[in-house]
Amino acid sequence: MPELPEVETVVRELRPHVVGALIKSAKFAIPRQLLPQTPALVSRRIRGRKIVAVNRRGKYILLKLDHGTLVLHLRMSGRLYVREGGSALDHERAWIELQPGARTLAFRDVRTLGTIQYYPDDAEIPALRALGWEPLDTTVAPGELRDRLRSRSMAIKPVLLDQSIWAGIGNIYASDSLWVAEIDPRVPANRLSLRQCERLTKSVPAVLTRALGQGGSTLRDFMSPDGMEGSYQKHFRVYDREGEPCSRCHGTIRRIVQAQRSTYFCPGCQNRR
DNA sequence: CACCACTCCTGCCCGC
DNA sequence: TGCGGGCAGGAGTGGT
Predict the structure, then answer these.
(1) Is the peptide bond before A126 cis (omega within 30 degrees of 0)?
(2) What's the gap between Cα A38 and its chain centre?
(3) Is residue A222's beta carbon less than 7 angstroms from any atom in nucleic acid strand C?
(4) pTM of this prediction?
(5) Is A24 noted as a catalytic residue in this protein?
(6) What is the largest CA-CA distance in chain A?
(7) Quick count: other Cβ atoms within 10 Å of Cβ A203?
(8) Active-site residue among A2, A142, A185, A225?
(9) Residues near A125 by beta carbon (within 8 Å), at least 6 away in sequence
(10) pLDDT of A155-194, one tens digit each?
(11) In A49-181, which ranges are E strands?
(12) pLDDT tens sequence across A61-112
């Protein structure tokens, strides 16, 4: 489901509801989501701890506790929200009971691909080690991008999904960022010109910042903790718009498959050197 | 290393 | 209506 704008929206909305809360108990329905840890172990570790901060790194959600960190990833279909009492919704997979109040931090995940792990030591969170730049960062130098792409002969679009370049770009914003930068998604990453790298270092934060301002995108079922749907899907440049006219050159938007994922682009104008 | 195919899941939508 | 195939916002793995 979510890419960076959606995850950042979740984090911002969750923060006021959970920071300062005490974890009374925790239950996990799908042990696979915690591997290599176990529900019993994670429950034991986080019970009685206080949530002191909610942060994000790439698409990972970091619930910082007074001892250790709970690291969650929503993957394709995960959602995270606080319920004031009430009964569980369909497809909830984890429940963290908070105090004070009868509040539940619920993790709903239809496809169960999301992950949950506990790390006692903040310095040693393996998933975060290899992550690249934050895509909202506007200070990435074009030359540094070109360096980072030097060894990559694959087409630029699937390379943008590699979280060690920028951490947080997913399939939607990879296509849209390349449209804004007027770059053909099929160009080998290591053949991008310095000008193209410069445009990309501008378009990535621009596109993601704009999407964040709209609360992200809601395609099938993204919903923020406060129950709001994102609205950036109304502003997609090319993503999910196969056959529609390009807003820049009025060419027809195409869909192709790269590395088993859909790519959308305008062949008419995404070819600037 | 880089790359590619494949895998984990469930649900929805489309065409027959 | 029912069924099968394809597709979905992600990322880790194992083989070459």
Answers:
(1) no
(2) 24
(3) yes
(4) 0.96
(5) no
(6) 59
(7) 19
(8) A2
(9) A69, A71, A119
(10) 999 999 999 999 999 999 999 999 999 999 999 999 999 9
(11) 51-57, 60-65, 69-73, 78-84, 92-99, 103-109, 115-119
(12) 999 999 999 999 999 999 999 999 889 999 999 999 999 999 999 999 999 9
Tens of pLDDT, residue by residue over A18-59, are: 999 999 999 999 999 999 999 999 999 999 999 999 999 999
| Protein-proximal nucleotides of chain C (any atom < 7 Å from a CB) | 7-12
Catalytic, A2? Answer: yes
Distances (CA, A) of A84 to A12, A95, A160: 18, 12, 39
Asked whether residue A127, judged by its CB, lies under 7 Å from any atom of the DNA or RNA strand C, the reply is yes
The nt closest to A259 (CA vs C1′) is: B4
Strand C–CB A1 distance below 7 A: yes
User: Is residue A59 flagged as an active site residue?
Assistant: yes
β pairing state of A103-109 and A92-99: antiparallel
Q: Which residues contact A67 (CB under 8 A, 6 or more apart)?
A: A49, A120
Where does the pLDDT of residue A208 fall: very low under 50, low under 70, confident under 90, or very high at 90 and above? very high
